[in-house]
């Protein structure tokens, strides 16, 4: 929302970043649930006087935004998805304050997972997993909605069924062609749901939590293939595309998906001295690296026919 101000184009927003909250729910059977969220809020609002005239009368204090996170977490008497909490907060800011036209709420959920002790799910014990679930809700005063979910830090590795051949060779190329290598990546996925209004989102409890787990499973299963045979990957690019396509084919309410898949290199180890070889690489000993890494990213969207 750009405004013309004193002959300039002016755009502004304000909010609170990284508000951390944990919420516990306990049912009558003594079964506990916990979530830990890191919430970032950004409001687009009519508050030019604060910038231009030392007049803060239209400002929602960022401290109030932070407090709202705790107040709304308290009000949620039932466990809810991170997406539903983002929507609830964004809806509050756009409906409660006349000045606020758009609220952007992004939340990262920490992967607390229930532990099993002696094969039994623990009533109140959790351990931290690895990848994180993200959600972003952008809500307009009109009720228009953009909802995006994601995965960050999903580390995947397979020890075979990967190769890279037929690429451009020139005077700077040294990489050998191969049909046998390790493939490792840390997937960042971001998918947009097709719901475009607060009034059209599914009301089923934990709908988006279930969807998140289902999308993650499709992504992981497509990367690895069948448990015995696997699936051959001719490039990170090809595997990324298969993962994106499988997601859109499987989930009708996902409108688009963006995937970032760094190619994390495991370098074959060959060592020799003047007397001859010490270690001869036989697809067994690797030097793990984290940088430099290849960076491969793409997005796939449905082409919506405008009737
Ligand atoms: O799957 C790959 N894609 C590339 O674009 C690339 N480039 C490279 O050096 N190795 C690889 N591997």
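^ structure tokens above, recovered residues below v
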């Amino acid at each position: 929302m750009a405004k013309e101000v004193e002959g300039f184009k002016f755009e502004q927003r304000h909010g609170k970043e990284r508000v951390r909250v944990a919420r516990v729910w306990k049912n009558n059977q003594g079964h506990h649930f916990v979530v830990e969220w890191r919430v970032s809020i950004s409001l687009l609002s009519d508050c030019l006087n604060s910038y231009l005239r030392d007049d803060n009368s239209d400002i929602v204090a960022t401290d109030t935004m932070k407090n709202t996170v705790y107040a709304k977490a308290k009000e949620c008497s039932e466990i809810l998805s991170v997406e539903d909490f983002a929507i609830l907060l964004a809806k509050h800011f756009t409906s409660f304050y006349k000045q606020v036209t758009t609220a952007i709420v992004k939340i990262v959920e920490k992967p607390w997972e229930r532990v099993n002790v002696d094969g039994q799910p623990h009533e109140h014990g959790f351990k931290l997993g690895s990848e994180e679930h993200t959600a972003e809700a952008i809500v307009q005063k009109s009720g228009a909605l953009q909802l995006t979910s994601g995965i960050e830090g999903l580390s995947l590795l397979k020890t075979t069924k990967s190769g890279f051949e037929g690429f451009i060779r020139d005077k700077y190329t040294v990489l050998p062609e191969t049909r046998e290598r390790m493939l490792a990546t840390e997937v960042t996925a971001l998918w947009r749901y097709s719901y475009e209004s607060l009034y059209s989102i599914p009301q089923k409890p934990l709908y988006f939590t279930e969807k998140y787990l289902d999308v993650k499973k499709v992504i992981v299963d497509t990367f690895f293939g069948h448990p015995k045979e696997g699936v051959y990957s001719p490039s990170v690019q090809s595997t990324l595309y298969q993962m994106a396509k499988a997601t859109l084919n499987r989930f009708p309410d996902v409108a688009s998906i963006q995937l970032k898949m760094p190619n994390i290199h495991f370098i074959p180890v060959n060592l020799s001295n003047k007397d001859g070889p010490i270690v001869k690489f036989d697809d067994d000993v690797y030097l793990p690296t984290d940088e430099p890494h290849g960076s491969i990213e793409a997005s796939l969207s449905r082409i919506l026919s405008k009737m």
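Residues 164, 175, 235-237, 263, 294 surround uric acid (CB under 6 Å).
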